[in-house]
Amino acid sequence: MADRFQELLEELRQGVTEYDEERVKVAAQAVLDEGFDAYDAVMNGLAAGMEEVGRLFGANEYFVPEVLMCADALYGGLEILRPHIEVDPSRQVKGAVVIGTVEGDVHDIGKNLVKLMFEIAGFTVHDLGRDVPLEKFVEEVLSTDSDFLCMSAMMTTTMGGMKQVIDQVRQKNPNVKIMVGGAPLTGDLAQRWGADGYGKDAPNALQEALRMVGSLREMHQEAAKGG
Q1: How many folded domains does the chain comprise?
Q2: CATH code, 198
Q3: What is the distance between the alpha carbons of residues 54 and 28, in angstroms, rounded to a whole number?
């Protein structure tokens, strides 16, 4: 049985990486039909495949069209598996994230990959899209009482707006975890601006998103123990 599940996980991984939506759907349905765990299939099959896609994108082996086709394949599998995921409080976090690309910038591939990781982890995702006015980030974080704010910028001319947003959000709600990403940023700059996390490219941002999700999961568990 374990070998068969590994086989299906590999089908899901490869199906996503090779943007073969039909292959992904067949494997996802087989996971359900044969009684395997839908959550494991999402995390160790679909998400693992998308992480590889992020690596390929970061290495300039894949470009935007390929990544979008891979995302379509992934969503094909998610549609089948997600309704069958049993919510286990120890591995799913109930939280919310606001995400978007800052004003003046229309690059969103890294943002979309990070968004995906939060969705898979069980978050409610408020995706503001591209070219988002700075004040919109602040308004959305406060109105939705979100745990996370993720902003991306791929141009030096647009990245400065992130500091304004961070300052304003910190004044209103210092507990929000803030992640920034994009090629022109550096880890030092993100730290100086007061961000909690930084991703220089899509794969790095994925890892950072997972780390931040993990830290929130730990906080929730500690709070549950204390309560």
Answers
A1: 2
A2: 3.40.50.280
A3: 21
Domain span at residue 129 reads 96-226
What is d(CA 212, CA 147) in angstroms, rounded to the nearest whole number? 10
| pLDDT class of 39 with cuts at 50, 70, 90 | confident
Are both 61 and 122 inside the same structural domain?
no
Whether 73 and 100 map to the same domain: the answer is: no
Residue 199 near residue 206, CB atoms below 8 Å:
yes
Q: Is 91 a member of any domain? A: no
Best CA proximity match to 177, nearest among 190, 161, 195: 195
End residue of a domain, out of 27, 56, 84: 84
- pLDDT tens by residue, 61-108: 988 788 889 888 988 998 999 888 765 555 555 689 999 999 988 777
Distance from the first to the final alpha carbon of the chain: 39
Give just the sign of the alpha carbon dihedral 8, 11, 16, 20: negative
The C-alpha angle with vertex 173 and arms to 171 and 176, in degrees rounded to 5, equals 120
Within the chain, strands assigned E span 96-102, 124-132, 148-152, 177-181, 197-199
Do 63 and 135 reside in the same domain of the chain?
no
Question: For residues 181 and 114, is the Cβ–Cβ distance under 8 A?
Answer: yes
Last residue of a domain, one of 84, 117, 146: 84
Residue of higher predicted confidence among 201 and 158 = 158
Return the exposure string of 54-88: e unless at least 16 CB atoms fall within 10 Å of the residue's CB, then b: bbbbbeeebeeebbebbbebbbbbbebbbeebeee
How is residue 126 written in tokens?
């408020």
Better pLDDT: 218 or 40: 40
